[in-house]
Amino acid sequence: MKTEDFDFDLPNELIAQTPVEKRSDSRLLVLNRKNKTIEHKHFYDITSYLNENDVLVLNDTKVMPARLYGIKEETKALIEILLLNDLGCNKWECLVKKAKKIKKGTIITFGDGILKAKCLEKKEEGVCILELIYQGILYEILDKLGEMPLPPYIHEKLKDKDRYQTVYAKKIGSAAAPTAGLHFTKELLLKLKEKKVTICYITLHVGLSTFRPVSVSDVTKHKMHKEYYQMDKKTASILNEAKKNNKRIVSVGTTTTRTLETIMNLYHEFRECSGYTDIFIYPGYKWQAVDSLITNFHLPKSTLMMLVSSFATKEFIMQAYKEAIKNKYRFFSFGDSMLIE
């Protein structure tokens, strides 16, 4: 299986630079896997496709202002870092721009010394282990110094940083938003509850796997980066009951999906647990947890493109993407959405 098999041509003007004014006004492409049909809707129409026998699973991670700009103490060279993964004891896995300028022992200063970072270890592809040195509460310092880590294909400045958070974001720790959830409003979630759709939450802190491109030609040779996940007892109980009673589990986003499938792979049931996942889902994968998927439109040749191709077949996904491009859907993080039934 080749990485090139998951490529497609996308006009630049279809890469969404800003979110739509109202979250739920984004468009929704509905794919029926059984009948191979495609419908054009809006996200607020999602209420017509979910019912009281469904369990909707959301990722409640919250994005950190994880992008920091500092200077190398020795030379005053400008250094940009992205906080990826909290390793504990103030040690963080980070993606460093111009990592060649950094070596073990290098000190980077941010905000006139409010925050400093010492390089403890250099890894591959620009990743470094940094020790953060500061006084006070880190997340308060990040609020002062950090920027929201928008993807590199977004060139417009984000006017409202809350638009890169879901309305249910709770547990801070992500280096990127779980973008499939950006379309939900509090009003829309209330309507779903009124329809007696069961809503529950998992946590997966989005890290390097979201940013890391597939650099190998053979898909099976790609290695995912580990990301932290957590499921509580309440969610596990709801999902086990759903499986027992043949209720549909509707996963919102690839982050939620990877968490659910990871837990089922490990335990053959849902349970209260936490850990790190590097699961890589591509065509040929045997699905165990998820019945329907809400997701955005993904980058060509990305692991996310491979995941949805596994769920709906590559042929059907490519057909759907062609239809979306023809109808000028908006792509990627601030773009439109798909429901795959």
Number of DSSP helical runs: 7
Number of domains: 2
Give the class-level CATH name of the largest domain.
Alpha Beta
One letter per element, helices H and strands E, the order comes to: EEEEEEEEEEHEHEHEHEHEEHHE
Percent in helix: 10-25%
**What is the mean pLDDT?**
95
Q: How large, in whole angstroms, is the Cα Rg?
A: 20 Å
Helix/strand-derived category reads: alpha/beta
Please describe the biggest sheet, giving its number of strands, its sense, and whether it closes into a barrel. 9 strands, mixed
- Write down how many β-strands occur, each being a DSSP E stretch of 2 or more residues: 17
Shape: globular
Beta fraction: 25-35%
**Uncertain stretches:** none
Terminal CA distance? 25 Å
Task: Sum this structure up briefly.
This protein has 341 residues and is of the alpha/beta class. It has helices at residues 138-145, 186-194, 208-211, 233-244, 254-267, 303-312, 314-326; strands at 27-32, 37-42, 54-59, 61-63, 67-72, 78-88, 91-97, 107-110, 115-122, 127-134, 171-174, 198-204, 227-231, 248-252, 273-277, 292-296, 337-340. The strands form three sheets. The protein has a nine-stranded mixed beta sheet. Strands 5-6-7-10-9-8 form a six-stranded antiparallel beta barrel. A two-stranded parallel sheet has the order 4-11.
